[in-house]
Write a structure and sequence with these properties.
Layout (H helix, E strand, L loop, with lengths): L1 E5 L3 H11 L5 E6 L2 H5 L7 E5 L5 H8 L4 E4 L3 H14 L2 E4 L11 H7 L2 E3 L8 H11 L3 E13 L14 H9 L2 E5 L2 E5 L6 E5 L3 E7 L6 H4 L2 E10 L3 H10 L8 E3 L2 E3 L1 H13 L7 E13 L2 E12 L8 H18 L7 E3 L2 H4 L2 H13 L5 E4 L1
Helix pairs in contact: 1-11, 3-4, 11-13
Length: about 375
Protein backbone atom coordinates (compact mmCIF):
# COMPACT_ATOMS: atom_id res chain seq x y z
CA UNK A 1 0.00 0.00 0.00
CA UNK A 2 1.27 3.43 -0.95
CA UNK A 3 0.69 5.91 1.88
CA UNK A 4 1.29 9.66 1.91
CA UNK A 5 1.60 11.59 5.18
CA UNK A 6 0.47 15.19 4.68
CA UNK A 7 2.17 17.28 7.36
CA UNK A 8 5.29 16.08 9.17
CA UNK A 9 5.38 17.81 12.52
CA UNK A 10 5.90 15.91 15.78
CA UNK A 11 3.01 13.52 15.09
CA UNK A 12 3.18 13.27 11.30
CA UNK A 13 6.87 12.44 11.55
CA UNK A 14 6.21 9.42 13.75
CA UNK A 15 3.28 8.32 11.59
CA UNK A 16 5.64 8.14 8.61
CA UNK A 17 8.24 6.23 10.62
CA UNK A 18 5.75 3.72 11.98
CA UNK A 19 4.26 2.91 8.59
CA UNK A 20 7.76 2.59 7.12
CA UNK A 21 8.61 -0.09 9.71
CA UNK A 22 5.89 -2.20 8.09
CA UNK A 23 7.16 -3.78 4.88
CA UNK A 24 3.66 -3.65 3.38
CA UNK A 25 3.83 0.14 3.05
CA UNK A 26 5.63 2.52 0.73
CA UNK A 27 5.59 5.89 2.48
CA UNK A 28 5.80 9.43 1.16
CA UNK A 29 6.17 12.28 3.68
CA UNK A 30 5.08 15.73 2.46
CA UNK A 31 5.50 19.14 4.09
CA UNK A 32 6.29 22.70 3.07
CA UNK A 33 8.96 22.95 5.76
CA UNK A 34 12.26 21.27 4.83
CA UNK A 35 13.17 21.17 8.51
CA UNK A 36 10.16 18.96 9.23
CA UNK A 37 11.34 16.53 6.54
CA UNK A 38 15.05 16.54 7.33
CA UNK A 39 14.86 13.80 9.95
CA UNK A 40 13.01 11.49 7.58
CA UNK A 41 15.44 11.65 4.69
CA UNK A 42 17.48 8.69 5.89
CA UNK A 43 14.57 6.55 7.09
CA UNK A 44 14.33 3.36 4.99
CA UNK A 45 11.04 3.17 3.13
CA UNK A 46 10.29 6.91 3.31
CA UNK A 47 10.43 9.31 0.38
CA UNK A 48 10.21 13.02 1.26
CA UNK A 49 8.48 15.68 -0.84
CA UNK A 50 8.73 19.39 -0.11
CA UNK A 51 5.43 20.91 -1.24
CA UNK A 52 2.84 23.49 -0.29
CA UNK A 53 -0.08 21.48 1.08
CA UNK A 54 -2.30 24.56 0.89
CA UNK A 55 -2.06 24.35 -2.91
CA UNK A 56 -5.12 22.28 -3.77
CA UNK A 57 -4.02 21.19 -7.24
CA UNK A 58 -0.55 20.10 -6.07
CA UNK A 59 -2.06 18.20 -3.15
CA UNK A 60 -4.52 16.33 -5.37
CA UNK A 61 -1.79 15.40 -7.86
CA UNK A 62 0.36 14.06 -5.03
CA UNK A 63 -2.50 12.18 -3.36
CA UNK A 64 -3.54 10.45 -6.58
CA UNK A 65 -0.17 8.70 -6.68
CA UNK A 66 -1.07 6.88 -3.45
CA UNK A 67 -3.67 4.54 -1.96
CA UNK A 68 -4.23 6.30 1.35
CA UNK A 69 -3.49 9.70 2.87
CA UNK A 70 -2.87 10.49 6.52
CA UNK A 71 -3.74 14.12 7.23
CA UNK A 72 -1.58 15.70 9.95
CA UNK A 73 -1.70 19.41 9.11
CA UNK A 74 -2.64 22.15 11.63
CA UNK A 75 -6.34 22.46 12.37
CA UNK A 76 -6.86 25.69 10.38
CA UNK A 77 -5.81 23.80 7.23
CA UNK A 78 -7.70 20.63 8.05
CA UNK A 79 -11.01 21.09 6.25
CA UNK A 80 -9.58 22.24 2.92
CA UNK A 81 -6.97 19.46 3.05
CA UNK A 82 -9.64 16.84 3.75
CA UNK A 83 -11.79 18.21 0.94
CA UNK A 84 -8.93 18.00 -1.56
CA UNK A 85 -7.95 14.53 -0.39
CA UNK A 86 -11.53 13.29 -0.87
CA UNK A 87 -11.57 14.73 -4.39
CA UNK A 88 -8.38 12.82 -5.15
CA UNK A 89 -10.35 9.60 -4.63
CA UNK A 90 -8.06 7.85 -2.15
CA UNK A 91 -8.83 6.65 1.38
CA UNK A 92 -8.06 8.95 4.31
CA UNK A 93 -7.17 8.91 8.00
CA UNK A 94 -7.35 12.42 9.44
CA UNK A 95 -5.96 13.62 12.81
CA UNK A 96 -6.55 17.35 12.23
CA UNK A 97 -8.49 19.21 14.93
CA UNK A 98 -10.35 21.38 12.46
CA UNK A 99 -13.07 23.76 13.73
CA UNK A 100 -15.40 22.95 10.82
CA UNK A 101 -17.85 20.04 10.80
CA UNK A 102 -16.09 17.47 8.63
CA UNK A 103 -19.18 15.25 8.59
CA UNK A 104 -20.64 17.70 6.07
CA UNK A 105 -18.32 16.01 3.56
CA UNK A 106 -19.83 12.55 4.13
CA UNK A 107 -21.92 12.43 0.95
CA UNK A 108 -19.06 13.85 -1.09
CA UNK A 109 -16.76 11.10 0.15
CA UNK A 110 -19.45 8.46 -0.28
CA UNK A 111 -20.01 9.49 -3.89
CA UNK A 112 -16.26 9.27 -4.48
CA UNK A 113 -16.08 5.79 -2.90
CA UNK A 114 -13.67 7.10 -0.25
CA UNK A 115 -13.23 5.72 3.26
CA UNK A 116 -12.34 8.69 5.48
CA UNK A 117 -11.93 8.40 9.26
CA UNK A 118 -11.67 11.86 10.84
CA UNK A 119 -10.68 13.16 14.31
CA UNK A 120 -8.51 10.07 14.49
CA UNK A 121 -6.09 11.02 17.28
CA UNK A 122 -6.10 10.43 21.01
CA UNK A 123 -8.89 12.86 22.02
CA UNK A 124 -10.87 13.22 19.89
CA UNK A 125 -10.16 9.80 18.48
CA UNK A 126 -9.43 6.95 20.84
CA UNK A 127 -11.61 8.69 23.43
CA UNK A 128 -14.65 8.53 21.12
CA UNK A 129 -13.96 4.91 20.23
CA UNK A 130 -14.00 3.96 23.92
CA UNK A 131 -17.27 5.82 24.51
CA UNK A 132 -18.82 3.95 21.58
CA UNK A 133 -17.54 0.58 22.81
CA UNK A 134 -19.09 1.07 26.24
CA UNK A 135 -22.32 2.51 24.83
CA UNK A 136 -22.74 -0.50 22.54
CA UNK A 137 -22.82 -2.70 25.65
CA UNK A 138 -25.61 -0.73 27.34
CA UNK A 139 -29.32 -0.28 26.84
CA UNK A 140 -29.10 3.39 27.78
CA UNK A 141 -26.29 5.81 28.68
CA UNK A 142 -26.60 8.10 31.68
CA UNK A 143 -23.10 9.61 31.55
CA UNK A 144 -20.17 9.76 29.14
CA UNK A 145 -17.21 11.73 30.47
CA UNK A 146 -13.82 12.19 28.79
CA UNK A 147 -10.69 13.49 30.51
CA UNK A 148 -7.58 13.84 28.34
CA UNK A 149 -4.29 15.68 28.39
CA UNK A 150 -0.77 15.71 27.01
CA UNK A 151 1.71 17.05 29.58
CA UNK A 152 5.41 17.52 30.21
CA UNK A 153 6.71 14.84 32.55
CA UNK A 154 8.47 17.55 34.58
CA UNK A 155 6.37 20.75 34.73
CA UNK A 156 8.22 24.08 34.61
CA UNK A 157 6.76 27.35 35.95
CA UNK A 158 5.08 29.59 35.07
CA UNK A 159 2.98 27.61 32.55
CA UNK A 160 3.66 24.03 33.70
CA UNK A 161 2.87 23.03 30.15
CA UNK A 162 4.53 22.19 26.86
CA UNK A 163 2.72 22.01 23.51
CA UNK A 164 3.07 18.47 22.23
CA UNK A 165 1.02 19.26 19.11
CA UNK A 166 0.30 22.42 17.11
CA UNK A 167 0.34 25.31 19.64
CA UNK A 168 -2.28 27.19 17.63
CA UNK A 169 -4.59 24.20 18.07
CA UNK A 170 -3.93 24.37 21.83
CA UNK A 171 -5.02 28.01 21.97
CA UNK A 172 -8.08 27.14 19.89
CA UNK A 173 -9.10 24.76 22.69
CA UNK A 174 -8.91 27.66 25.15
CA UNK A 175 -11.15 30.03 23.18
CA UNK A 176 -13.73 27.79 21.47
CA UNK A 177 -16.94 27.49 23.55
CA UNK A 178 -17.37 23.97 24.94
CA UNK A 179 -20.50 22.01 24.10
CA UNK A 180 -21.90 19.47 26.55
CA UNK A 181 -25.10 17.50 27.16
CA UNK A 182 -27.04 17.97 30.40
CA UNK A 183 -30.28 16.11 30.97
CA UNK A 184 -30.41 15.41 27.21
CA UNK A 185 -30.14 19.12 26.36
CA UNK A 186 -27.25 20.64 24.43
CA UNK A 187 -25.56 23.39 26.47
CA UNK A 188 -22.55 25.60 25.86
CA UNK A 189 -20.07 26.76 28.50
CA UNK A 190 -16.88 28.78 28.33
CA UNK A 191 -13.70 26.87 27.59
CA UNK A 192 -11.41 26.71 30.66
CA UNK A 193 -14.46 26.80 32.97
CA UNK A 194 -15.87 24.22 35.41
CA UNK A 195 -12.45 23.32 36.83
CA UNK A 196 -12.21 20.19 38.95
CA UNK A 197 -9.24 18.37 40.44
CA UNK A 198 -8.60 14.67 39.88
CA UNK A 199 -6.00 12.39 41.43
CA UNK A 200 -4.12 10.08 39.07
CA UNK A 201 -2.04 7.52 41.03
CA UNK A 202 1.17 7.68 38.96
CA UNK A 203 0.94 11.37 38.02
CA UNK A 204 -0.57 13.21 40.98
CA UNK A 205 -3.29 15.82 41.07
CA UNK A 206 -4.36 17.33 37.75
CA UNK A 207 -6.96 19.97 36.98
CA UNK A 208 -9.66 19.31 34.41
CA UNK A 209 -11.54 22.07 32.59
CA UNK A 210 -14.20 22.25 29.90
CA UNK A 211 -13.13 22.08 26.26
CA UNK A 212 -15.03 21.45 23.04
CA UNK A 213 -13.90 17.89 22.40
CA UNK A 214 -17.18 16.01 22.09
CA UNK A 215 -17.70 17.04 18.48
CA UNK A 216 -19.38 14.17 16.59
CA UNK A 217 -20.37 12.38 19.81
CA UNK A 218 -23.10 14.98 20.19
CA UNK A 219 -24.98 13.36 17.32
CA UNK A 220 -23.76 9.74 17.28
CA UNK A 221 -24.18 8.80 20.96
CA UNK A 222 -27.42 9.32 22.84
CA UNK A 223 -26.59 10.10 26.48
CA UNK A 224 -28.38 11.85 29.31
CA UNK A 225 -25.17 13.70 30.25
CA UNK A 226 -21.94 14.03 28.33
CA UNK A 227 -18.86 16.25 28.51
CA UNK A 228 -15.15 16.44 27.71
CA UNK A 229 -12.44 18.09 29.80
CA UNK A 230 -8.76 18.74 29.18
CA UNK A 231 -6.18 17.84 31.83
CA UNK A 232 -3.35 20.13 32.91
CA UNK A 233 -1.21 20.65 36.00
CA UNK A 234 -3.05 22.81 38.58
CA UNK A 235 -3.07 26.55 37.92
CA UNK A 236 -2.78 26.45 34.13
CA UNK A 237 -6.43 27.21 33.44
CA UNK A 238 -6.39 30.35 35.57
CA UNK A 239 -3.38 31.72 33.70
CA UNK A 240 -4.95 30.99 30.31
CA UNK A 241 -8.22 32.60 31.41
CA UNK A 242 -6.33 35.75 32.35
CA UNK A 243 -4.66 35.93 28.94
CA UNK A 244 -7.94 35.30 27.16
CA UNK A 245 -9.86 37.90 29.17
CA UNK A 246 -7.10 40.43 28.46
CA UNK A 247 -7.75 39.93 24.75
CA UNK A 248 -4.45 38.21 24.05
CA UNK A 249 -6.14 35.39 22.12
CA UNK A 250 -8.11 37.80 19.92
CA UNK A 251 -8.15 37.09 16.19
CA UNK A 252 -9.24 40.56 15.02
CA UNK A 253 -6.44 42.95 14.09
CA UNK A 254 -5.69 45.95 16.30
CA UNK A 255 -3.42 48.91 15.57
CA UNK A 256 -0.18 49.18 17.54
CA UNK A 257 2.22 51.98 16.62
CA UNK A 258 0.57 52.33 13.23
CA UNK A 259 0.86 48.62 12.49
CA UNK A 260 -2.11 46.24 12.33
CA UNK A 261 -1.46 43.10 14.38
CA UNK A 262 -3.58 40.17 15.54
CA UNK A 263 -3.19 39.60 19.30
CA UNK A 264 -3.23 35.82 18.91
CA UNK A 265 -0.22 36.00 16.60
CA UNK A 266 1.70 38.19 19.04
CA UNK A 267 0.99 35.98 22.05
CA UNK A 268 1.84 32.93 19.97
CA UNK A 269 5.28 34.32 19.19
CA UNK A 270 5.83 35.03 22.88
CA UNK A 271 4.42 31.80 24.29
CA UNK A 272 5.57 29.17 21.83
CA UNK A 273 9.31 29.28 22.64
CA UNK A 274 8.57 28.51 26.29
CA UNK A 275 5.97 25.89 25.32
CA UNK A 276 8.27 24.00 22.98
CA UNK A 277 9.55 20.61 24.08
CA UNK A 278 13.34 20.64 24.08
CA UNK A 279 15.21 17.75 22.49
CA UNK A 280 15.01 14.79 24.82
CA UNK A 281 12.47 16.47 27.10
CA UNK A 282 9.91 13.90 28.18
CA UNK A 283 6.13 14.06 28.13
CA UNK A 284 3.20 11.86 29.10
CA UNK A 285 -0.40 11.34 27.98
CA UNK A 286 -3.33 10.75 30.32
CA UNK A 287 -6.76 9.56 29.16
CA UNK A 288 -9.72 8.53 31.28
CA UNK A 289 -13.16 7.73 29.85
CA UNK A 290 -16.10 7.02 32.14
CA UNK A 291 -19.37 5.68 30.77
CA UNK A 292 -22.31 4.89 33.05
CA UNK A 293 -25.66 3.46 32.03
CA UNK A 294 -28.21 0.69 32.30
CA UNK A 295 -27.89 -2.86 31.00
CA UNK A 296 -30.86 -5.20 31.49
CA UNK A 297 -32.26 -3.01 34.28
CA UNK A 298 -28.94 -3.04 36.15
CA UNK A 299 -26.51 -0.15 36.61
CA UNK A 300 -23.34 -0.59 34.54
CA UNK A 301 -20.08 1.36 34.55
CA UNK A 302 -17.09 1.14 32.19
CA UNK A 303 -13.93 3.07 33.08
CA UNK A 304 -11.05 3.14 30.60
CA UNK A 305 -7.59 4.43 31.51
CA UNK A 306 -4.47 5.12 29.48
CA UNK A 307 -1.17 6.43 30.80
CA UNK A 308 1.61 6.63 28.24
CA UNK A 309 5.17 7.94 28.50
CA UNK A 310 7.92 9.31 26.28
CA UNK A 311 9.79 6.53 24.45
CA UNK A 312 13.42 6.99 25.46
CA UNK A 313 14.74 4.31 23.11
CA UNK A 314 13.24 5.91 20.00
CA UNK A 315 13.17 9.44 21.46
CA UNK A 316 9.51 9.74 20.56
CA UNK A 317 7.05 11.91 22.46
CA UNK A 318 4.08 10.24 24.07
CA UNK A 319 1.69 12.49 22.15
CA UNK A 320 3.30 11.43 18.87
CA UNK A 321 3.00 7.79 19.98
CA UNK A 322 -0.60 7.84 21.15
CA UNK A 323 -1.96 10.08 18.39
CA UNK A 324 0.26 8.67 15.66
CA UNK A 325 -0.26 5.01 16.48
CA UNK A 326 -4.02 5.50 16.70
CA UNK A 327 -3.86 6.85 13.15
CA UNK A 328 -1.55 4.14 11.81
CA UNK A 329 -3.66 1.43 13.46
CA UNK A 330 -6.72 2.72 11.61
CA UNK A 331 -4.70 2.76 8.38
CA UNK A 332 -4.08 -0.95 8.95
CA UNK A 333 -7.77 -1.58 9.69
CA UNK A 334 -8.59 -0.06 6.31
CA UNK A 335 -5.78 -1.95 4.57
CA UNK A 336 -7.01 -5.27 5.96
CA UNK A 337 -10.66 -4.58 5.06
CA UNK A 338 -11.68 -4.62 8.71
CA UNK A 339 -13.08 -1.09 8.56
CA UNK A 340 -14.91 -0.63 5.27
CA UNK A 341 -17.53 2.09 5.84
CA UNK A 342 -17.50 4.41 2.83
CA UNK A 343 -17.90 8.13 3.49
CA UNK A 344 -16.69 10.33 6.35
CA UNK A 345 -16.71 8.43 9.64
CA UNK A 346 -16.02 9.82 13.10
CA UNK A 347 -13.88 7.53 15.28
CA UNK A 348 -16.81 6.20 17.31
CA UNK A 349 -17.72 4.03 14.31
CA UNK A 350 -14.55 2.06 15.11
CA UNK A 351 -15.99 1.22 18.51
CA UNK A 352 -19.47 0.26 17.37
CA UNK A 353 -18.33 -3.04 15.84
CA UNK A 354 -16.72 -5.52 18.23
CA UNK A 355 -14.30 -7.07 15.75
CA UNK A 356 -13.02 -3.67 14.62
CA UNK A 357 -12.67 -2.41 18.19
CA UNK A 358 -10.83 -5.51 19.41
CA UNK A 359 -8.39 -5.37 16.51
CA UNK A 360 -7.76 -1.68 17.15
CA UNK A 361 -6.97 -2.40 20.81
CA UNK A 362 -4.62 -5.20 19.75
CA UNK A 363 -2.77 -2.99 17.29
CA UNK A 364 -2.36 -0.24 19.88
CA UNK A 365 -1.15 -2.71 22.50
CA UNK A 366 1.41 -4.07 20.03
CA UNK A 367 2.74 -0.49 19.87
CA UNK A 368 2.92 -0.25 23.67
CA UNK A 369 -0.21 1.91 23.93
CA UNK A 370 -2.42 -0.09 26.28
CA UNK A 371 -5.89 0.81 27.47
CA UNK A 372 -7.17 -0.79 30.66
CA UNK A 373 -10.87 -1.24 31.37
CA UNK A 374 -12.69 -1.72 34.66
CA UNK A 375 -16.37 -2.61 34.70
CA UNK A 376 -18.97 -2.67 37.43
Amino acid sequence: MKAVVLGCGLVGNEIARDLARDSEFEVTAADINPGALSGLGDVPGVTTVETNLADRDSLIRLAKEHDIAILAVPGFMGYQTLEAAIDSGINIVDICFTPEDTLQLHERAKDAGVIAVVDCGIAPGLSHTLVADASSKMDSVELAAIYAGGLPAEPEPPWNYKAVFSPLDVIEEYIRPARAVRERQLVTVDALSEVEFIQFPEVGTLEAFATDGLRSLLTTIEAENMYEKTLRYPGHAEKMQALREAGMFGKDAIEVGGVAVRPIEVISKLLFPSWKLHEGEEDLTVLRVIVKGIKEDQAATHIYNLLDYYDRERQTTSMARTTGYMATSVVRLIRDDIFTRVGVSPPEHLGMEERCFNELMRLLKDHGVEVTRNTA
